[in-house]
Amino acid sequence: MQADEPVTILTVAREAGVSKTTASDALRGSGRVSERTRETVVAVAERLGYVPNGSARHLRKASTGTIGLHVPEVLTRSAYYMSFVFGVVEQAARHDYDVTLITAGQRRARPPRVDGLVLGDPLGGDPVVESLMATGLPAVTCERFPGARQADGVVWSEHALMLARLLDHLRSAGSVRPGLIVAGDESDWAASVHRGYQEWCGRNGVPPLVRRVSFDATGEEVRAAARALLGTGGGTPRTAGDALSAGGGTLGARDGLPMDALVCAPAGAATEVAPLLREAGGGVLLASCVDSAATRMADPPITAIDLRPREAGASCAELLFELLSGAAQPGTERVHPIELEIRASTTPRP
Asked: Which domains does the chain have, with CATH numbers?
C-alpha cells in the first residue's frame, strides 16, 4: 500500500485477506462472519486508521444523514438554548448524523432535506413550526406543541410540580406572598409554570400576584414588571393591585400583604431584577425557573430550577433516532427530570 493511498473498505479487505463484503459485515457487526475473522478485520482497520464513509452509508439507506433542529429564533441568545443545541448535536454525532439549523428565514415551499426534526420549545402560532410539522417528517418536540398538530414524540418535564416545590421552599423560608413574572401561554413551558403557580396559590389560600411579559422580554420589560409587583411603578408609590390592573396581571393585593418573594420564569430575568430588589430593600427572596451560570455566580447565588438543557436536547435527538429506526412508536412521550437548586437568595428569614 502506498503512503498516500486513501484507506477504504477495499484496503482493509485486501490487508485482512477477505472480501469487501466480509470486511464490511465484520466492521458493522452483521452477517455470518466468524469471531476470529471479525477480530482480524477490526484489528486491521484500527492499524490502518480506517474511518467509515458516513455519507456513502446513508446513501445506501436512502437517508440524508441529517436531522433538522428548530428553536425559537428570539431565544437563540439564551444560554439554555445554546446548551440544548449542543445536546442535540452531540447525540446526532453518536449516530453519525449532521444537524441543520432551521430558522424563520429559511421558509420555502419544499420540505427541508432532513430525515427528521427536533423542535425545541415550539411556540403556538409560530408559522415555521406549523410548516415543519405539516411536512410529514418524523418530529420530536421538547415540551408539547400548544397547537392543533402534535409531534411523533415529546420530551417534557413536570414544571408545575417543580414550581410547587420551589414555592413550598419559599414558604418555609418565611414568604407569605410570592409573586411571579412569566411569559404568555404560547409556550407549553410558560403555561405549565403559570398553571402551577395558580394551583399552588389556590391550595394555600394565597392571592396570586402575577405579571405577564412577552416571550422575548427585554431586561427593561422584566424590570418594569418587577417594579409593578413591588408597587413602585418606576418611582411612583401605589398598591400592587393598581400596578397590575393595567398590565394583564392577576389582582390580589387588596389584603395589604406586600410581595415578599419573586419567582422569575423567563431565562435571565432573575439576574436582571436582582439589583432592583436590592435597591428596593425589604429582603425580597428571589428565585428563577431557569438555572444558568449567571444565577449560580450572582451575589448572592440565586435559587433556580435546573432544566438540564444539554440532557434535554440529547433526549430529544435520541427519541427521534428511535422513531427513525422503528425502536419507538409515534406518540411516544418521555419525562425529562429537572431539579431544584436551593441557594443563598432564598435564605430563610430570621
From this structure: 9-52 (1.10.260.40), 66-157+310-335 (3.40.50.2300), 159-306 (3.40.50.2300)
